[in-house]
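This is your field. Have a critical look at both lines of this record:
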Amino acid sequence: MWMYLGLLAALFLGLHNLCKKHAVQGNEVFPVLLGTISAGFLLLLPFYIGSVFYPEYMTSIQFYIDDIPWKTHGFIVVKSAIMASSWVLAYQALKHLPITIVTPIRSAGPFFTFIGAITIYQEKPNLWQWLGFFLIIFSVLLYSRIGKKEGIHFTRNKWIFAIIGATFLGASSGLYDKFLIQKLSLNPQTLQFWFCFYTILILLIILSINWFPYAKKRKAFTWRWSIPLVGILLQIADYFYFKALQDPEALIMLLSAIKRSQIIIAVVIGGIIFKEQNKRKKLVPLAGIMCGVFLILYS
C-alpha cells in the first residue's frame, strides 16, 4: 500500500512543479515562497482549530493534530530550517533555469537518500537497486550535455550549484522525515501543520532582511493564481508521502525513487507549456531515469 501512496505523492508533486515554474517565472522568489507555504498553512489551519474544539470528531476522520512536547517542536524547527534553505535555493534556480533542466537534477535526490538509508537506517539494497540508482545518476549527467546547448554550462552556472545544494538538503530532509514519522510517531497532519508554521516564521525573518525594506523588490512582485495552488498541491503530496512513511515496512530509499516519477509531468507537459528547447533530446535521459526507477521497483 505504501508504494501506491508514494505514486499519489509523485502525481501531486509533478503538478506542484508545473505551478511552481509558473509562479516564479520572472517573479520575486521570496514572497512567492512565503505565499505558497502560507496557503498550505491555511489549508491545514481548520484541522488544528477542529482538533482544539472538536477532538473526537477530528480523531474519527483521522485528521486530529496532536499536542506535542517542546522537544518535538525543536525537531520540527530543524526540518523547517533545512527545507526553507532547500526551497530558497530551488526557487532561485527554477527562476533562472529551464524546468526540463531543474527537474532531472532534482531527480538525483534519491541517490543521496539511498546513501543515507544505507548508512543511517541500514536499509539493504540489492543489485537491481544499485543499478537503478546509478542509471538515474548517469541520466542526470546526460542532461548536463543537453543543458550546454541552451547556454547552460554546469560548471560555471551558479544556479546549477544552487539546485544541487537544494537537492542535497531535500534528500537530507527526506531521511529526517523517517525519523520524525517512525521514531517520534508523528502523524502526517501534525508534522505538516507545525512544519508550515515554523517555516513561515523563518521566511518572515528572511523577507524582513532581503525584501520588505526594498520598495523596488516589492513592486517587482506579481501575484499569480499559481502561488496558493503550489502550496495546496505540496501539502496534498506530503500527506500521501507521510502516510506511506507510517508503514513500518516502507523503505525511504524506494519511496524517494518512486517520487521521481513526477518528472514525467514536469519534463513532458512542462516542456510543452513553457516551450522549452530540446524537448525530444531530453526524452532520452528521461527514459534512463524512468528505467532506473523501474529497476528499483522491480527489485
The mean pLDDT is 84. The longest helix spans residues 70-96. Residues 2-298 form one domain. The chain has one domain: 2-298.
